[in-house]
């Protein structure tokens, strides 16, 4: 197994990625400028040696792909996680063995190129031998774009159905109001003065409180002399 061909995770140290690349991607996504993002992908990916041995910048863009697609298609980034969206190029031209091995030069590199053109990349000249593959990349990008649009439409339709169902569900009853502690203490103290037993006191407190809730917050009496007026 050639370790150069295997995907390697992005280093934990963000300093390893050029700030200019991070800033450029953030600015283009904030606009959003799909053509600009696509061309940034192509410029980074087609630097010397990236097809076989990706550096932190290429791996950074791979890790950002769900965010890129989520922003440009206006759906949550987690929906666009790896394996979360259709990838016609990989379905048609890459075997399961390479997919399972997570091979960079057969899986991730060409898929990133296809996505770059699918979202609007405009570069017509690529370094050899990829200069002979531009037409193929564009054809694959057309299929990728159509698959993404279909996927996004299906997601939005399902989300609307879920939102309608949630809106149609009966609303839970509001939680019971918390009694005013000072009100209950005053009520209990007043009843003690009548020589009532504890059970009667508790029952009376509950009844008075329920009456107060039914009549509204203003019915809660504030003085002990008011507690026993009927």
Secondary structure elements and their pairing?
Blueprint: H1 19-30, H2 34-45, H3 56-72, H4 88-93, H5 96-101, H6 104-118, H7 134-168, H8 181-192, H9 198-215
Helix pairs in contact: 1-2, 2-3, 2-6, 6-7, 8-9
Instruction: Compute the CA-based radius of gyration.
Output: 33 Å
Query: Tell me, what's the shape?
Result: elongated
How many domains make up the coordinates?
Answer: 2
Q: Classify the helix fraction into a percent range.
A: 55-70%
Query: What structural class should be given to the helix and strand makeup?
Result: mainly alpha
Task: Give an account of the 3D structure.
The protein has 230 residues and is mainly α. It has 2 domains: 3-168, no CATH class; 181-226, no CATH class. The chain is built from 9 helices and no strands. The protein has helices at residues 19-30, 34-45, 56-72, 88-93, 96-101, 104-118, 134-168, 181-192, 198-215. Helix 2 packs antiparallel against helix 6 (104-118) and helix 6 (104-118) packs across helix 7 (134-168). The chain is elongated, with a radius of gyration of 33 Å. 21% of the residues are buried. Mean pLDDT is 81; it is low at 1-14 and 217-230.
Could you write a compact summary of the structure shown?
The protein is an all-alpha fold. Helix content is 58%, strand content 0%. The N and C termini lie far apart (90 Å).
State the main characteristics.
230 residues; mainly alpha; disordered N terminus; 2 domains; 58% helix
